[in-house]
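Predict the structure of Phytocyanin domain-containing protein.
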Amino acid sequence: MSSTIRLLLASALAVQAGAATIKIESGPGGLVFSPNETKAAVGDVLEFHFVAGNHSVVQGDFDNACHPATTGGFYSGYLPALNGENPNVFSVTINSTEPVAFYCSQGKHCQDGMVGVINPTNAMSFATYAAAAKSATQNVAPPAVFGGTVGPAPKETSSTVSPSGTASPTTSVTPSTSTKPNGAGIISVSCGAIVAAVGFALFLA
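Done. Here is the predicted structure for Phytocyanin domain-containing protein.
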């Protein structure tokens, strides 16, 4: 086995072993995501739980609030939680640590502040995106689910959820848009895929 392949395999396994699952709740107590700001490292998984109401999560464009990211991105579709938490969650794997905005595409929820940011900076934060969203003339939903997976919620999620409002960070973070870095092409390939690719390389070696 070549030293390069050994190094790739070790790196992929290290990333996978260190990955965290970051739980984000949609709709707890109103039109909010909780936390609405958090950090995520490469390999971490954002796990969106839909706990009340009928909401979605879309990766947003920092330059055009309440509109989907122009490159890459993700969209959960609507996951209603009208009689308790929806049994499914939407999971997205982080592939970059640049800022990523997200919002709910239901009605005027985005304009009303149901937005959030992964890996915020001073210029690209929950506060700046929420302020821009207030004046958005449209709240746009993509035509189909993409960029993540919808499936049954696991029995346990490793990370804790910060209170809604200006929530505190939970792990490390990512971005999106046309003129600013886009976190959703960023957010698509899982560590498992990396390990599988390296395993295939080992098979060929």
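The longest strand covers residues 21-26.
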